[in-house]
TrEMBL record, chain A:
Residues 236-335 form the Histidine kinase/HSP90-like ATPase domain. Belongs to the sigma-70 factor family. ECF subfamily. One of its GO terms (biological process) is DNA-templated transcription initiation. Keywords: DNA-binding, Kinase, Sigma factor, Transcription, Transcription regulation, Transferase. Transmembrane segments: none annotated. The keyword Transcription applies. GO terms for molecular function: DNA binding; kinase activity; sigma factor activity. SMART domains: HATPase_c. Gene3D superfamilies: 1.10.1740.10, Histidine kinase-like ATPase, C-terminal domain, Winged helix-like DNA-binding domain superfamily/Winged helix DNA-binding domain. It comes from Geodermatophilus obscurus. This is Serine/threonine-protein kinase RsbT.
TrEMBL record, chain B:
Signal peptide: none annotated. It comes from the Bacteria. It holds the Pfam family STAS. Residues 5-116 form the STAS domain. This is RsbT antagonist protein RsbS. Coiled coil: none annotated.
UniProtKB/TrEMBL annotation, chain C:
This is RsbT co-antagonist protein RsbR. Residues 1-19 have a biased composition (Gly residues). Pfam families: STAS (PF01740). Residues 1-20 are annotated as: Disordered. The lineage of its organism: Bacteria, Bacillati, Actinomycetota, Actinomycetes, Geodermatophilales. Residues 179-290 form the STAS domain.
Amino acid sequence: MVRRIVAARVDDAAMADDLVQETLVRVLAAAGRVDAGMLEPYAIATARNVVATAWRDRDRQRRNQHRVVDLDTPDPPDTELLASEERAAVAEALARLGDRDREALLAHEVSGRDTRSLAAELGSTPGAVAAQLHRARARLRVEYLLARDHTEPPTDRCRPVLLALSSGDRRRQREVEAGRHLLECDACAGLSQPLLDRAPPREDAVRIPVDGDGDVVAARQAARELAARLGCFSRTDLTLIATAVSEVTRNIVKFAGSGEVVVEVLEEPRTGVRVTARDTGPGIPDVERALQDGYSTYAGLGLGLPGARRLMDEFAIASEVGRGTTVTMTRWCGER
Amino acid sequence: MTGPRLVSILRQGSHLIASVHTALDDTQMTAFQHDLVDRIGRDRSRGVVIDVAALDVLDSFATRTLRTIAEVARLRGAVTVVVGIQPDVAFAMVSLGMDTGALHTALDLEEGLALLDRIAGGRRPAVGARGGPA
Amino acid sequence: MTGYRGQGTTTGGPGGLDGLDGLEGLAEDQLLPQLVAHLREHRARLRHEWADRIQLAGLLHAMTPQEMAAETTSVYDNYVEVLETGSVEALQRYARDLSERIIPRGVETHEVVGIVLLLRDVLARSLFEKYQRDFGLLNRVLDAYEPAANRIANTVAVSFVEERERVIRQQQDSIRELSTPVLPVRERLLILPIIGVLDRERARQLTEQLLNGIRTHRARVVVIDITGVPEVDESVANHLVQTVDASRLMGASVIITGLSPVIAQTLVTIGVDLSKMDTIGDLQGGLEEAERLLGYPTAGGDDGTAP
């Protein structure tokens, strides 16, 4: 029921998920305080409030506002089932949190306690409490998704990866090689979708899923656009970058079938762009050889790697047979 | 196969003028190759000008495809000239290390047609199949 | 603000300066105007003292005494004005003007910073002399003076360095342009004389210039003269090959001239395929060949080209 209320107002599955979660956390927490017969109206009211708040808060508002419709209240029998499933999932997710996390989260989200008063009570600082709440929310999202789908992560690498994605901690995502894991693990790829969609679009990075021919063009155009925004690359620089991206992306399509290309703006140690092309294909048995063809014998192994390397300032390749290949290449601004 | 918006192939006298209007992916590029080669055969063209001025990247695949077209066209008795390669694209192509030695090239459509006329006029073009008497 | 009352209120400095009566009861924000009045009054003497110190320190020796006198006077007046108005913009403007004048004369950053610091010290010392009998007042005066003076020193130094960097950049740009001119000799024909050492960055700029030049001038033949290139190593050779290939892609033939036998041998040793390049001994021969390619009548032949 809550899902339907939210979904009727929100045309975006990931956002709807988020709002449903938020609503249910509140409803669930209020369950003790609200008369059993009141629970349903309370849930509807809460859902409306949550959605309304979300509309105020979110930029997406403008895009979707015309889709907001008024709620009719027919209640087909299965909505009750759906709602109870949601509730069960949230309850389970909450149960899987540590005691301290759960209490802090409920005190903050449901009772409306601010971080300052929580900090005073816990003998901590508001900053530390905020960080704890952030982690707890991240964990709740992950556990909710797992409970909703009635799945357990297939490997012990899954949870850390999902957590890093949920909390939006990029450093941690790199540490646990989140990108690579998502290519390898179908379960996590599916589970992570709402988490990834949740993240606000990054201004300084773009990720292009690579699945076929057309993505080669898409990747090089995205790379050119992002690099052009820096303002420090000449037209020739941009063409060199785009050409290099074209080559490494084609390798993914040709040898692995699918993968991804991530283009990021770098600030340190200098301004530049870094391109990461990643796949979980067959891998390259002899990387040295793939890189070592002479200047004019481009054809070589047909990987286009030596060419791409010549177009960029830095170039690294890691490949493992049976596990896939990651090409990382950078071009710096400057020297002109 | 290839949509009319991506490329256009026009006949002008005994020549074909093929213009690529937008970035092509590999499948579209290959389709373009087939279309063009078909037309060369059907029209018994003596010369083909391929205008790539609209392309901001000519990577290894695109370059190889252009070479293939030129080679197949040659076997069918037509000379191919690629025109409109932009300065930055040319620079990227050579930086990439593409072997483009056998490809006839000219600055733009006008120069390309002039080059074809010179070649068709029975005079072998000068150095590297470019230049020659104006 | 304390209710400070000076003790030796009637004593002038050793320089016979006026009494302190006017200052003792002053609010802090009135101290600076008083200082300024003092520095204006003794302008001639203090400026001289400063100029002497500059000479003693061996700074600005690139300037004639007249120039020195003129510049020190304007710096002094600007300095006092900034103390008075607190407006750094005027000083910045002046410092940039000054820098523009003196940079071409080879004045170094340390000299500019040096003279401003000397002026700061000369003035501080005169204040010290004037107020030394009243230590408390002296402290207040210096408290008002020092931050302002340091800000001025800072502003001048920064403006100078910025101006200097700008000039250097400008010079580098013009040198770069000079060293890689793409010369349209006649219709459809460009000459690119390369002089000096080719590094990666310069080779790249040169190629970009040439390629853009080919499009702008609709060039069909390019003569690259490398007589002025002292040595050709593998990377320079590769750049040359790239430049030739890229020019060809734009429809222009390239003739390389000035290739000495030694360099030619080097190229062959490196593995450069010279048969792919059209090379001709000297520039004159290269131009003749170019005109022949373009179909212009030349001294020794018709406009045809032998296969």
